[in-house]
Structure formats: C-alpha cells, structure tokens
Amino acid sequence: xxxxxxxxxxxxxxxxxxxxxxxxxxxxxxxxxxxxxxxxxxxxxxxxxxxxxxxxxxxxxxxxxxxxxxxxxxxxxxxxxxxxxxxxxxxxxxxxxxxxxxxxxxxxxxxxxxxxxxxxxxxxxxxxxxxxxxxxxxxxxxxxxxxxxxxxxxxxxxxxxxxxxxxxxxxxxxxxxxxxxxxxxxxxxxxxxxxxxxxxxxxxxxxxxxxxxxxxxxxxxxxxxxxxxxxxxxxxxxxxxxxxxxxxxxxxxx
Length: 254
What we know:
Elements: E1 2-4, E2 7-12, E3 18-23, E4 27-29, H1 31-34, E5 43-45, E6 52-57, E7 60-63, H2 71-74, H3 79-83, H4 88-91, E8 99-103, H5 111-117, E9 122-127, H6 130-143, E10 148-152, E11 165-171, H7 180-190, E12 191-203, E13 216-217, H8 219-227, E14 232-236, E15 243-249
Parallel strand pairs: 8-9, 8-11, 9-10, 11-12, 12-13
Antiparallel strand pairs: 1-4, 2-3, 5-6, 6-7, 12-15, 14-15
C-alpha cells in the first residue's frame, strides 16, 4: 500500500512565475493500482533437444513422454536384475491399510506388488493414458485383484481427493510431467498430513547409468523442485543400482 498525504507545493516556471501544485502524501492507493508487474513465468519455452519438449522448469528441460507403445519395455524380464525392483516395495515401509497413489502407473508394474502389501488399503493407479489403464484393468481381472483402482489423470492434475493419500509414488515418471508444478501442488493437496512422496529417478550424477540424459535427474534438482511445492526432504535411500530413491514428507499442520 502506498500512502500519500495531500498538501500544497510550489514550482517556478521558466519565466519565474510561481506555480502551486497539489501534492498527495497521505491518500492510500494500493500499489497494484499504480504498477502491474508480471510474475516470473513458471515455465520457459525454448528450442527442444532431441529427447525434450522445449519446455524448461527450474533450469531443466522436460523430457518427452514414453507412451503406451513402450509398455513392453516396462515389463521386460531383465528389469528386476537391472533395477532391483524387488527391493523397492520393501523399502517403502508400507502399513497394511495405507492408501498409495502410483502416479504414472503405466502397466501397473509396481501397483500390483504394492497392493499385496496394503491388503487392507488401496492402490490408486494413476495414468493420463487410457491405454495404460486398460493394461491395469486386464491384469486386475486376470489376477482377481480388488484393491487396485485405475484413475485417469490429467497433465496437470492426478484427480485425487484432498487429504486422501498416505503415499504418492512415482517411478521414472516425474521428469516427464509437462506441468510438474501444478501436478505436485495437486499431489501435495491429496496427501494426508504426514503423508510421503517417494520418487525413483535415474541418477544424472552417474554417466554410467545407460539412460538418455533428459530421463535422468540429480538429487539436487529433485530436492529443489519438491521443496518448491512445500515438501520436506527426508532421505535419499541408496539401495538401487541405477536410481535415486528419494523420500519427502508433507508436514502436519501445527
């Protein structure tokens, strides 16, 4: 708020004639009525690299999305050996009645092992591609699983109810979000107080990890982006050969 108060001042013209002016120095005028400043853009648009979309967020280019045609790669037999996916679920330290949102669930590769652990809870398998949700529905019928629910998300919203989720889990998906700020704010709202976010991302610090550059992230970059939406860093659990396993928490209200 700018405060101006009225009073009289005096100027002298080129000819030496006094000119009386009304000055204002105690009239309250909202600053936004005087000056309009555009906020810094969340995203910057530039030339895309071969694997990127030309959209930059907090200093990194967002990668292209691996679509449903890559489902076979997600289900490849060598994945357990290469990524030690068998270690992932046990390190999530889930409770039997937890509600877990598997964001970017894909074929449900992790949704179903998690569902076995949260037998009294539920897995919300979120994806923006209907074809991926069809994979999940087919496996639900095949394996007679009743605690996995497919959720069709949007590019900027996972379509989860507020305060409904104990854990939001993302495996090699976050770096592909075209609207990461909006998605993470929506995920933050969906978490219960004390709820956790766990991200697996290929380690960009390690040049030997055989993944394209834009499909990897550094620990520092992930922390920067998660803390920007109000999440608190807990730990980076060093248990996987290629990936960070990063834990964050939504703080309980005081």
